[in-house]
Each structure stands twice: as C-alpha cells, then as structure tokens.
Amino acid sequence: MVLSTIPLARLNGPEDPRTRAPSTAASSSIPVISPLASQPVSEEVARLLSTSIDTVAELEILLFLHRRPDGEWDPNAAADLLYLDRGLSQKIFRKLHTKGFLTFRDDPYLLYRYAPPKDVIATIDKLAGLYTERRLMVIAMVAARRPSSVQLFSNAFKLRRGGR
Fold it and tell me: Same domain, yes or no, for 34 and 93?
C-alpha cells in the first residue's frame, strides 16, 4: 500500500489569499493511505457480489456473521447491533439461508449460524478483507448492480418508439 500525505491546509478548506496569515500549521501534512494502491478485485469476489449479494444490508449481515462464525444469531439481535430494521434483518437472514450461507435451528428459538459452502469460504474471506480495506468501493459495486427505485420510477415515464 502506498502512503501519501495531504497538506492540512487542503483539509481545512480553500484559503482566501487576502486573509492568509503566515502559519507553520498549513505546511504540516498527515498520512493518507491511497486506495489506488490496493489490488484489483478478484473474479470470484466480483462474481459473489454480482450473483449473491443484492443490497448493502445483506453484505453487512453476511460479513457480521463471517466475523462471528461460531455464534448463533437471532435476526433481531443482529438488527439491533447493526442499526437495521428488524423486519429487514429477518428477511435478509431468510434470504442468506436460502442462498446457502446460513443454517438455522428453531428449537426453542429461531437462531441462525454462519455456514457457507466450503468452496465459498475463501471468497468470503477475501471479500471481508476487501471490505475492510476498500469499503466504499465494495458498497459502490453492490449499489451499481441494481437500478435505484428513483431510476425505476423515472423509466416508467420514458417514451417508447412505436407507441408501445
């Protein structure tokens, strides 16, 4: 990873040269890790994101469970810890179970456990590392998969050729 520096003056906003006072603080710098120095996304991680993860909330829950592979989780408890809606969390847990990432038991309570197929574990490990290192890029990849509800709404009003 490449470590670069950004002058503090740039972080504080634009300067007005008429009011600038001599300062040594403006010449100080802080280290910043360049996201461009990271490795590209592997094919298997890109495939996992494009075929199995539909929303950032799904990604968050999957990676939350990935970090706690030995625990059994109630969707409501996970929702509270991740600041998600409980109903949404329950739907995501069911969806991740359907996709094969989780197992569950329902006696005496419904609890889920992280249990992806063995051939996917290494890919999820890579995804977790990438998410730690380049979170915004991963979120952008997930968000780019689907058109937004605003886009879908606006598409409904597009004029089509031939009057159809």
Answer: no
- Residue 74 contacts residue 110 (beta carbons within 8 Å): yes
Helix (H, G, I), strand (E, B) or coil at 22: coil
Which residues constitute the domain of residue 7? 1-12+24-39
Same domain as 102, residue 51: yes
Whole-angstrom distance, CA of residue 56 vs CA of residue 21: 45
Asked if residue 62 lies in contact with residue 53, where contact means CB atoms within 8 angstroms, the answer is yes
1-44: pLDDT as tens digits: 444 444 444 444 445 445 454 444 444 444 444 444 456 789 99
46's tokens = 């890109």
Q: CA 68, 70, 76 angle in degrees (round to 5)?
A: 60
Structure tokens at 76: 């409501």
Q: Would you say residue 162 lies in a domain?
A: no
Which tens digit of pLDDT belongs to each residue from 100-123?
999 999 988 999 999 999 999 999
Provide the terminal-to-terminal Cα distance of the chain, rounded to the nearest Å. 53
Q: Is residue 161 part of a domain?
A: no
